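Running co-folding for alpha-L-sorbopyranose.
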Amino acid sequence: MSEQVGFLTMGAARAGGDAPEIGIGMLGYAFMGKAHTNAYKKIPYMLWPPPARPRLVAVCGRNEAGVAEAARRYGYERHYTDWRELLRDDRVQVFDNGGPNNVHAEPCIAAAEAGKHIICEKPLARTAAEAKEMLQAVQRSGVKHVCAFNYRFVPAVRQARLLLEQGVLGRIFHFRARYLQEWGNSPDVAQWRYHAETAGSGALGDLGAHIIDLGRFLVGEPRSVSALTATFIKERQDPGGGTGMKAVDVDDAFEAVVEFENGAVGTLEASRFAPGRKNANTFEINGERGTIAFNLERLNELEVYLEGTSPKEAQGFRDVLVSESFHPFWEHWWPQGHIIGWEHTFVHELGHLLDAIVNNKDVAPYGATFEDGYKNAVICDAIIQSAREGRRVEIAY
Ligand code: SOE
């Protein structure tokens, strides 16, 4: 038979080429379930050749109709309403926990005991004690583990890390970070994030955890914190569907002064009451030879000021568009200036995990592990303790 040339006879070109297939079990199908699934579907053809071809084996959620629709929408082969059934599915090799904070520990510990590799959304847990149990479970089982601090996978943030590794700024004096959003500034907003039993903490664990992780990733280990917290709206509609009101027992904002082991000092702030700030995760690092500054709302840009690199008449910051082919992750995307977005951080992060699994590589130091999640939780607990006791608290892992 004459060989036809074309997609009919060449066979359906399989996304991901010959990369090994790896089964994904996703807990949660809302915000993070959507962001992670979008990334799994892009990996086979955007991270070319991919480390692995994610197979969307199953998605899990409490609401049967909702999770069945999510399975259809995203292309999961099966859906479950009980995460225990998902973990019994032998085709699931990676357990992805995108559930609320109170559903992180038990399923992740069970997943580790079932030999599943794990990615769990941040914060790893509601408290350091809970996070420690999760860390010990993955250490016992030997599985790969990621705590999903996805902002480590912004090209500009990775570029900042590489510049710091090269010592471009010299001795570091300050790390100054804040994560501001506005959606809390309405008494009508009611959800699990406002109650300690489900969230652990408020803006601290939700937003502060990110800038605490970036401080550790870019500057080093904190030695102590001095902090205060504020709750501006004291009760909200019960998110459990009741008609009553429920006390808000977590922070709406926190302010902290931080001292690092390496002598740097700085400030950390997070709030959900910053009108006009949509997703303003910003940091600035001052060193003896210059400054680096970043703003997530302009995530393709890195502001860089280096002493002595310009004639005095041209002093000032350079606004680097981090999109050149030689910039981190940009070999996967477009010509320079064709900027990428928030969703792509998950493509990089999940690709990093799959590469670590298939090629037995370390997740650290560029990916955050459960150890990073645990240390983050210790720092969050210290901030709460400092605010409660009105004193500086030393960090002890
Ligand atoms: C809160 O609104 C939130 O969704 C965080 O939970 C995420 O971690 C952050 O990336 C965006 O804002």
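Result summary
The chain has two domains: 2-151, 153-338+370-389.
Residues 2-151 form a domain with the Rossmann fold fold (CATH 3.40.50.720).
Job closed.
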